């Protein structure tokens, strides 16, 4: 309730004590009372408690945590959104910032989860712990659906609670002593998980980079694909295509360059394909479409942006048997050990949904949802194009990357939020090369996307 609403609310029966007291005052208004002197009284007990030092353990903080800058990007955006709502409690805030899906999960998928859930109430249908790597039927369906004829088999697939979780588990596999490269800009988890593991030095404010990370610059000037001739050799290369945040999708020729670069340097590519189903026909949908990739690459993916599973939580990682460490030990065996140690397997209900996703009806339903979000991207792209901005992405990914030359990304974020009540994402939150850009997510109800674009036009016309 706003302050105005509160002041205009009629006094209810619960306020009777206040009314009686007021009447008493009015009846005794001619009674004079001796004046009193008031002074400030300090509570000694409270002051002494505040002065006491809080109890501390003798355990040292992980020094790597102290290297992290501010909060993780998306919680920080949520914090600013909440502060904006406190300032404008009646505003209709539209969120096109965090990449969270908004449309209902198709019924063909939820009905399968419902059936599995109800079965758990029966002796015949109940199941407890499953295989940490995922149910055999789902692993087989993922292999045949996404990696048919690519040499990836069901036992190369590890089902999980999401690609983001697997990215962090992979960092545990690699340990603190590896060097890493990331696209710049890129999804923040690659950098932050590396910092937490101790793979980096300190953050350098002058160039907004962590010491020890190779930032592969991806800008409009190089078509959002790094100039590999100028990239230093690292152990691990994180690469996302179609890309979050720029929306760019690498071509077959570009990914061939990347695989050859990794082979020449003895590196491992961690390929994030969370948006592969958004890629147009003719573009690679998996790194394993590239010859030789099974010897140098791991692929993570997710049902989050395909089926609306952001809250259900289900993803997978493909680790080929051919991928070996320098001593010849299979990477998949170490990843399997980490999965078995740190994870008890994805929810059996979620896995039932995943299996339904990969049925003919489920695949059709997922493509319909993806087409809906791609329709949103077209509306956003057309809006900013009509306003004279340079706009990227939107064709092969659910993100639109808009350039605001010579401006701070956070300043643009704040301007848009303050003047239109629309939440976007500042490009600099994805890396120094993102400065001067904002990312606009296409994940939203159509009415909200249309309203947001109307407000953009009013602000920047």
What does this structure look like?
- The chain is α/β, with parallel strands linked by helices and 461 residues long.
- It folds into two domains: 68-103 and 362-460, Aspartate Aminotransferase, domain 1 (Alpha-Beta Complex); 107-359, Aspartate Aminotransferase, domain 2 (3-Layer(aba) Sandwich), CATH 3.40.640.10.
- It has helices at residues 3-8, 16-27, 44-51, 73-87, 107-119, 136-146, 163-174, 188-197, 252-265, 304-307, 331-342, 348-357, 360-386, 409-420, 446-460; strands at residues 94-95, 157-160, 180-184, 203-204, 209-210, 213-217, 236-240, 268-272, 297-302, 315-318, 391-393, 399-403, 422-423, 425-426, 437-441.
- The chain has a seven-stranded mixed beta sheet with strand order 2-10-9-8-7-3-6, sandwiched between helices. Strands 11-12-15-14 form a four-stranded antiparallel beta sheet.
- Helix 7 packs parallel to helix 8 (188-197) and helix 13 packs parallel to helix 15.
- The radius of gyration is 27 Å and the shape is globular.
- The protein starts with a helix and ends with a helix.
- Mean pLDDT is 91; it is low at 1-44.
């Amino acid at each position: 309730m706003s302050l105005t609403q509160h002041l205009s609310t009629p006094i209810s029966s619960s306020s009777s004590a206040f009314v009686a007291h007021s009447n008493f005052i009015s009846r005794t208004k001619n009674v004079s009372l001796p004046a009193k002197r008031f002074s400030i009284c300090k509570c000694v007990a409270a002051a002494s408690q505040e002065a006491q030092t809080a109890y501390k353990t003798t355990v040292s903080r992980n020094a790597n945590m102290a290297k992290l800058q501010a909060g993780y990007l998306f919680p920080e955006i949520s914090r600013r959104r909440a502060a904006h709502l406190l300032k404008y409690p009646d505003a209709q805030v539209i969120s096109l910032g965090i990449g969270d899906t908004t449309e209902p999960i198709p019924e063909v998928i939820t009905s399968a989860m419902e059936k599995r859930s109800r079965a758990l109430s029966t002796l015949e249908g109940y199941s407890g712990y499953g295989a940490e790597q995922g149910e055999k039927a789902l692993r087989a369906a993922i292999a045949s659906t996404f990696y048919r004829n690519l040499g990836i088999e069901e036992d190369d697939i590890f089902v999980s609670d999401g690609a983001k979780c697997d990215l962090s588990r992979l960092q545990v596999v690699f340990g603190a002593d590896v060097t890493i490269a990331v696209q710049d800009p890129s999804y923040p988890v690659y950098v932050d998980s590396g910092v937490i593991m101790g793979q980096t030095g300190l953050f350098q404010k002058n160039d907004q980079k962590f010491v020890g990370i190779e930032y592969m610059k991806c800008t409009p000037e190089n078509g959002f694909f790094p100039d590999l001739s100028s990239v230093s050799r690292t152990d691990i290369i994180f690469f996302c295509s179609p890309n979050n945040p720029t929306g760019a999708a690498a071509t077959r020729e570009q990914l061939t360059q990347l695989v050859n670069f990794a082979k020449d340097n003895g590196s491992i590519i961690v390929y994030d394909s969370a948006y592969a189903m958004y890629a147009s026909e003719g573009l690679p949908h998996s790194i394993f479409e590239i010859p030789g990739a099974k010897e140098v690459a791991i692929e993570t993916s997710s049902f989050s942006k395909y089926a609306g599973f952001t809250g259900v939580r289900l993803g997978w990682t493909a680790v080929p048997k051919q991928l070996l460490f320098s001593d010849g030990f299979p990477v998949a065996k170490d990843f399997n050990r980490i999965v078995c140690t740190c994870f008890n397997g994805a929810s059996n209900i979620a896995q039932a949904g995943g299996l339904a996703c990969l049925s003919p009806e489920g695949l059709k339903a997922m493509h319909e949802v993806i087409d809906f979000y791609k329709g949103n991207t077209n509306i956003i792209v057309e809006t900013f194009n009509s306003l004279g901005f340079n706009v990227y992405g939107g064709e092969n990914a659910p993100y639109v990357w808009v350039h605001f030359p010579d401006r701070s990304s956070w300043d643009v974020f704040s301007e848009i939020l303050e003047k239109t009540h629309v939440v976007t994402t500042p490009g600099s939150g994805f890396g120094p090369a993102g400065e001067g850009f904002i990312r606009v997510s296409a994940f939203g109800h159509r009415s909200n996307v249309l309203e947001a674009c109307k407000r953009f036009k009013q602000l920047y016309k």
